[in-house]
């Protein structure tokens, strides 16, 4: 069954159109660096020049080639703006050539103890499962969808207390792991979880680490994800609206208690959710 046109995969995006003009030859465009998405809507949050933040500048204020960063060009006329993600592990040089200085930021350490042998002594079967899930996730991230009404701030996905903020340096059983690139909101099992904006369900599945997991594609290469649910109430390829109930909070996957692990992704870089929600 075909999806409505506004949610179909972008087989011919502005990015590809620009490739034709900037690279001239079809066989040459593979050597071109990042090219922009283009949108007339431009209500992204204010600039936050820090790891996990965003660059939000008038296009006329940037006099350097932007081919080496992913960015959205939005607005019209003299009000065109450049919106770009600043990854947690950003490359200073890519922003310095634009005359932009990203502020250093320190993040606290978090020490977590996991006692479940399933996560401490991972079986061969689970290692295969983890790799298959990684490939599935990456494959879905490569898909770009058009949605309507992506406006900021995003809706808060659930009610609860912040149990872990973005950027925390994690030590699990005293071993340093990947930093925490999301927002953890803790509450009782069964607490409602809502879609933060209109979008398309890209994934609705159970993952080894993430547990019951939902990934939503919005507009302009912006996505949101919801992990450790006790129950998923939406299906893959389903269209959802802002504020729609999509699941219930839980403690599935690798967790120490009931909470929602919430992420936002812009050009598939995980940014600080607190910059985008109410």
How would you characterize this protein structure?
- This protein is of the alpha+beta class and 278 residues long.
- The chain is 13% helix and 29% strand.
- The chain contains 4 helices and 17 strands.
- Strands 6, 9, 10, 11, 12, 13, 14, 15, 16 and 17 form a 10-stranded antiparallel beta sheet that branches.
- The longest helix has 18 residues, at 124-141.
- The two termini are 35 Å apart.
- The model is unreliable at 1-33 (pLDDT under 50).
SSE layout and pairings?
Blueprint: H1 14-23, E1 37-39, E2 54-58, E3 72-74, E4 81-85, H2 92-96, E5 109-112, H3 117-120, H4 124-141, E6 161-164, E7 169-172, E8 175-176, E9 183-186, E10 192-194, E11 199-207, E12 211-217, E13 222-232, E14 239-240, E15 245-249, E16 259-266, E17 269-271
Parallel strand pairs: 1-3, 5-7
Antiparallel strand pairs: 2-4, 3-4, 6-9, 7-8, 9-16, 10-15, 11-12, 11-14, 12-13, 13-15, 13-16, 16-17
Percent range of helical residues: 10-25%
Biggest sheet statistics: 10 strands, antiparallel
Highest-level CATH class of the largest domain: Mainly Beta
Work out the radius of gyration: 19 Å
Measured between the Cα atoms of the first and last residue, the distance is 35 Å
Total of domains: 2
pLDDT average, as an integer?
A: 84
Would you tell me which CATH topology of the largest domain applies? Glucose Permease (Domain IIA)
Number of helices: 4
* CATH architecture term of the largest domain: Distorted Sandwich
- Per DSSP E runs of 2 or more residues, the count of β-strands stands at 17
Structural class: alpha+beta
The CATH superfamily of the largest domain appears as Glucose Permease (Domain IIA)
**Helices and strands, in N-to-C order?**
HEEEEHEHHEEEEEEEEEEEE
- What overall form do the CA principal axes indicate? globular
Taking pLDDT < 50 over at least 5 consecutive residues as the criterion, the unreliable ranges are 1-33
Describe the oligomeric state of these chains in a short phrase.
Answer: single chain
As a percent range, the share of strand residues is 25-35%
């Amino acid at each position: 069954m075909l999806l409505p046109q506004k949610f179909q995969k972008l087989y011919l995006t502005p990015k590809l159109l620009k490739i034709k003009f900037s690279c001239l030859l079809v066989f040459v465009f593979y050597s071109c660096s990042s090219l922009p998405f283009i949108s007339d809507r431009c209500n992204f949050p204010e600039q936050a020049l820090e790891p996990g933040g965003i660059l939000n500048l008038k296009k006329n204020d940037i006099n350097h080639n932007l081919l080496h960063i992913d960015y959205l060009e939005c607005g019209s006329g003299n009000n065109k703006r450049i919106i770009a993600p600043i990854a947690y592990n950003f490359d200073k040089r890519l922003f310095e050539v634009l005359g932009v200085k990203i502020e250093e930021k320190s993040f606290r350490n978090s020490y977590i103890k996991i006692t479940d042998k399933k996560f401490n002594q991972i079986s061969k079967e689970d290692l295969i499962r983890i790799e298959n899930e990684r490939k599935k996730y990456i494959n879905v991230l490569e898909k770009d969808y058009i949605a309507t009404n992506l406006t900021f701030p995003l809706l808060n996905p659930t009610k609860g207390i912040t149990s872990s903020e973005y950027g925390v340096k994690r030590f699990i059983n005293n071993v340093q792991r990947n930093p925490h690139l999301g927002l953890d909101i803790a509450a009782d099992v069964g607490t409602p979880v809502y879609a933060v904006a209109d979008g398309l369900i890209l994934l609705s599945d159970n993952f080894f680490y993430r547990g019951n997991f939902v990934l939503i594609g919005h507009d302009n290469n912006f996505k949101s994800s919801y992990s450790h649910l006790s129950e998923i109430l939406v299906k893959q390829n389903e269209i959802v609206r802002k504020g729609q109930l999509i699941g219930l909070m839980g403690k599935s996957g690798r967790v120490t208690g009931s909470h929602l692990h919430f992420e936002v992704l812009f050009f598939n870089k995980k940014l600080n959710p607190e910059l985008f929600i109410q």
